[in-house]
Amino acid sequence: MLRQYELVERVKEYDPDADEAMLNRAYVYTVQKHGTQTRASGDPYFSHPVEVAGLMTDLKLDQETIATALLHDTVEDTLATIEDIELNFGTDVARLVDGVTKLSKIEQMPENERAAENLRKFLLAMSEDIRVLLVKLGDRLHNMRTLGFIKNPEKRQRIARETMDIYAPLAERVGMYEYMREMQMLAFEQLEPEAFETITQRLDQIRQQDGGQVDAIALDMKHALAEAGLTVEVSGREKHPYSIWRKMAERHVSFEQVTDIMAFRIITESVDDCYRAMGLLHTTWQFLPGRFKDYISTPKTNGYRSLHTSLIYGKSMRVEVQIRTREMHRTNEFGLAAHWAYKQGDRPDGQVGWLRDLIEIVDASHDPEELLEHTRMAIYQDRIFAFTPKGALFQLPKGSTAVDFAFAVHTDLGAQTVGAKINGRHMPLRTQLHNGDVVEILKGKNAEPQMSWLGFVVTGKARAAIRRAVRLKERAEVAEIGTKLFDEIASRVPAKIGKKAVRDALKRLEMEEEDDLYYAIGAANIADRDVMEALVPGCTEGMADDDAEWLRSGKSLSIRGLTPGVGYQLAECCHPVPGDRIVGVRKPSSGVEVHAIDCHELASGIDTDWLDLSWGKSSRGAVGRLRVTLYDRPGTLAEMAGIFAKNVVNVKSLEQVQLDHPFTTYEVDLEVQDLAHLTRILSALRASDAVAQAERA
């Protein structure tokens, strides 16, 4: 563990003007506050924040960040408060400490909710000042280094999984590859102990048997480049176990089939030397086509710059080579932390493009599971590059579609998407993009995100925006139904209902807005009787609970303009279509379910809270279900399909439900315009010699 004077000396080495007194106060404060607390390893607890501060000095970060690292657990694990931190160390340090600190009030939440809420708070704080992330990554790295001391295997697995899913990818996204690699390896050891042990043993065997082969290859490369007048540093290593395991899993190969286990890094003096070195290597050794990547001309979103290639050394050995300058190497290993020299007064704003996307996801995510899912997607590592027609470059996860691209360009563009051109050709929105694709998004003024898009989009930003738009539309349409129902309810009370009565009712029901009340009524989250009582207290006295007269007005409610599946649900039991006489059944939190008036489910008395509904003028489109019995002979199925085609109907599903020679019975779901359309199809089926019987199911 670093001693107090050693920590201060480290900071003074790269920042002679650092406030030594503040650093000393922070060190003493954390020692005093943590007192006799110990870690699972038995070490004093304060050794952890001191080691995290040491990691921050390796990154040459400013004094506020070092103080934050020392104090980051005091608010969570001691009696210290944010106000105490601000009083003793200033507003800046207090804000950073608060960003890293977990909320104490969420400690009683279920595990997934707690993790999501911590992540939400952390991402929001990180967006204001990226130093929050740097301290958090240092904190997580040191915790992973000591993870083996935790006795509970389930807790070790949980922490390792969280590290693999969230913190290692975050380290990669800010370019801190050194942190990322170590986190991945430590998490991999816990999550896949057998695989880790096997690969580690094989690497040890290779190391013992290669007879210094790695050093020999590195020396060969250095000599070849030196002969061309290039001054370079060459180093070689085996890939770490997690990298090898992931490659085995992705390619479905064994350890023996992973041929590029060795990787070499060449450090040059300039960018020109990088390209010269690449050309010399490719002329000296055979390179593998398709494995060359130029991250210098097209850097990754995290600022990573390097040339990558794979060579065949000797007769069959494949080796990976990375070529970069010294400045690139520093940036590639420590990412954002390498850019800012705080001693010069520079401050990061944290407003990196992908970080803004994360904040959009935080705002749009509806529940903990969504937040965790979308965040994992947003920090997904394997990327592809695609361009707008004007040449703007966007990086997306592999498997991204045109819709993902649209949301990456701008959330509003994604919401208005109606089509896409990929490399000049009209393509389906679900088309997956490839490296170098040029994507033109076609938009419409009245377009809106579709629920079906969730079946193929892969980016967290797109999924969060689509779900949010669908939720808002659903709420608006349910509230519209609730508004109509409210007018009926208000007509039953013995008084004229004005604005004042509504305001008073909202107070009695402890609601903020009228829309909250309308939504609650439409979603059946509040009983009509309770609404009447809130409007005119005492007006329902003497009414029996089973007295339905005061629940009905006899006026039908139109569902015109509402969206099936959003504002209301069409019942699966009877498949009503426009033109059918319909009623609605209100179910708590699921809105109105629409049934045909003669539905057998209604006859069974599943619910007495029925609404008299009407389709409204020009209501079009629904799925009707038919039960068709065909003669069991060749060509009858084709004849039925021909009838559907002549009547311009889309078959949604076709299922054989009974085989009773010489008959075969099918249930067919058809996308029809209205009852008249469905009736014409039934008439055509009944007139056919291929059909024995046709009825609505």
How is this structure best described in words?
With 697 residues, this protein is of the alpha+beta class. The chain has 6 domains: 4-191, Hypothetical protein af1432 (Orthogonal Bundle); 210-339, Beta Polymerase, domain 2, CATH 3.30.460.10; 381-458, Ubiquitin-like (UB roll), CATH 3.10.20.30; 469-540, no CATH class; 559-615, no CATH class; 622-696, ACT domain (Alpha-Beta Plaits, 2-Layer Sandwich), CATH 3.30.70. Strands 1, 2, 3, 4, 5 and 6 form a 6-stranded mixed β-sheet that branches. A 5-stranded mixed β-sheet has the order 8-7-11-9-10. It has a 5-stranded mixed β-sheet with strand order 12-16-14-15-13, covered by helices on one side. α4 crosses α7 and α11 packs across α12 (193-209). The chain is globular and about 90 Å long. The protein starts with a helix and ends with a strand. Residues 103-109, 339-351 and 546-554 have low confidence and may be disordered.
Tell me the distance between the termini. Answer: 76 Å
- Number of separate strands: 20
Could you estimate the helical fraction of the residues in percent? 40-55%
Write down the overall geometry: globular
Under the CATH scheme, the architecture of the largest domain is Orthogonal Bundle
CATH superfamily of the largest domain: Hypothetical protein af1432
* Average of per-residue pLDDT values: 82
Q: Can you count the helices?
A: 27
Number of domains: 6
> Pairing-aware structural class of the strands and helices?
alpha+beta
Beta-strand share of residues: 15-25%
